[in-house]
Amino acid sequence: MHRYRSHTCGELRSSDVGTDVRLSGWLHNRRDLGGILFIDLRDHYGITQLVARPGTPAYEALDKVTKESTVRIDGQVVSRGADNVNPELPTGEIEVEVGEVELLGAAQPLPFTINAEDGVNEERRLEYRFLDLRRERMHRNIMLRTAVISAIRHKMTALGFNEMATPILSATSPEGARDFVVPSRLNPGRFYALPQAPQQFKQLLMISGFDRYFQIAPCFRDEDARADRSPGEFYQLDVEMSFVEQEDVFQPIERLMTELFTEFGGDREVTSPFPRIPFREAMLKYGSDKPDLRAKLELVDLTDVFEGSEFKAFAGKHVRALAVPDVSGQPRKFFDQLGDYAVSQGAKGLAWVRVAEDGSLTGPIAKFLTEANVAELTKRLSLAAGHAVFFGAGEFDEVSKIMGAVRVEAAKRAGQFEENVFRFCWIVDFPMYEKDEETGAIDFSHNPFSMPQGGLDALENQDPLDILGWQYDIVCNGVELSSGAIRNHEPEIMLKAFEIAGYDRETVEEKFAGMLRAFRFGAPPHGGIAPGVDRIVMLLADEPNIRETISFPLNGNAQDLMMGAPTELEEARLRELHLSVRTPQPK
Fold it and tell me: Which residues belong to any copy of the Aminoacyl-transfer RNA synthetases class-II family profile domain (predicted)?
C-alpha cells in the first residue's frame, strides 16, 4: 500500500464497503457523539467521515489532534446505513472505521476558523492566506480559475491561435498607469519596466509574420486597488490577429466568452450575439461606458427640453431623466431611499415626479414644469399612469456618473433588474483624444497605439476631440472585461497621432524606435484585445472582490502581508544596483 494513501478523501463510495483503505488529509472537524468520535478528514478532492470508537488507540490519538493537523489513517470502509446518509457529500453513504493513526503535521492554534466563514477581516486572511485557501469557497474559486484558464487555452488553440511568450523585462510604455521599474546592475542608472501589457511585443509578433497569437499574460501596474482591480499584478488573455478589421476580432472573442460563461456559469443565461453600443450612446443611455444591461431601464437626455427654462435647477445644465414604470404601489420611502442613494453617489439631491391616473404629474418639482415640458416628457419617455421620473442635472460627466448608478439601483428596487444572467455588450467608437480639464492639453483617451477612424486625413483635418478610434471594450454585467483596438500600423499616422497628444517626432522615434522601425518594413493591418482573467473568474464565481479569485493577492495598499513584501534592501545590495534611497520626510 502507498505510504500515505490508497484513496483520496473524495473517492470512496458504497461499492468500497469492506475495503481496507489508507487516507491522508487535514482534520477538518471533530464531533463527540455519545463517546464515539466522528472526524471529517479533508484533502484536495473532498471529505470523508471517519469513526473512532472508545478504548481504541485510534480514539486516543484522534481525540488529541488539533484541527487542521495533517494525519494518515488506516481503516475499513463501512456503510453509514440509510438513516445516516449525508446527501451533501459524494462520500456520504460511507464512513471509515479507523484502526491506526499517524500524525504527519501538527497544527498550532488557528487564527480563524477554517470549516466555516467566521467574518475574520481581510488583512488577517491575507496574512494567513495558506489557511484561508483551505476554506471550501476559496478552494473552489481557485480551482474554477484553473479550469477556466485550461479551457481558454484549449478553445484558443481550437480557434487557430498560437500561444507565445513575451518578455517580462522591457522598456517603459505610456499605457496609462505607473510602471514597476527594475534597476539594471549591468547598466548603471538605467531601469527595466515590468510590462503593463505585452502591447508592443504582440504587435511585433504580427509584423514578424505570426498570424494569430495568444498568451495568458502577467501584467504589472502600479495603481490603486479597487473591488474589480488588484494592485500590482494581474493576468489577461492577450490576443492579436493580422489582416483583420474590428468585426474579425469580435467573432472569435464573442464565441470564446459565450462558451466560457455557458460552461462555467451554471444555469445563468448568456446573451448572444453581443450588442454593439457606441461610446457616446452608452454614456447617454446608461451613464457609463461599462453599462450593466441587467437593468432594463434607460436614461433619456432632456437637455434641450429645459434649455432656457425658468426652473433654475435645470436651466443651462445637462439634464438626464430616468422613467421607472409600475411604481404606483411604491410608498414615499421608495423615493426617499433612492434620493439618499443618489446623494451617496455625489448628488445634491434627486428630483422626481409621478404620473397620476389622469396623466398629470405630481411630486416635488411638478409645479416647476410647464405644459410644454409635461407634453415633451410624456412623449419622449412614453409616460403612462404609474410611472415615476427621476432627474439629474449638472455637468455631463457628473450627471452621467450619478444617474448611471441611480439607473441600476432603481431597476433593482423596482423589479426591473434581471438576475442569474450574463449580459454582454461591445462598447465601440471611443473618442481618440480627451482634454485635460486642469491644463487644457489634449491627450489619448484610450490606447495610444490605436488606428484613428479616418486615418491620417482625420488627424490632419478634424477637431481632435471629434476623432474616433477603432477601439472597443467588452463589458459584462457592468464590469469591463477587456479593452482592445485595431492598431495603428503606419508610421506617419502614428507620428501624427502622438504629435496631437503633445509628443514631438524625436521623442516618439526614441521611445518607440523598435515599433517604428518594424512598421517601416511591411507591417500588416492588425488588431487585438486582452480580456482580464481575474475579472472573468470573479464574475463566474459571483464574487464581489477580485482578490477572492487570486491565490496570493496583495492587499489594498499593495502589500503582501504573508511574505512581508515590499521589503527594504541592504546597503550592500543598493550599492550593487547603483541606488540610493530617499525616504519621504514626515509632514
Answer: 144-566
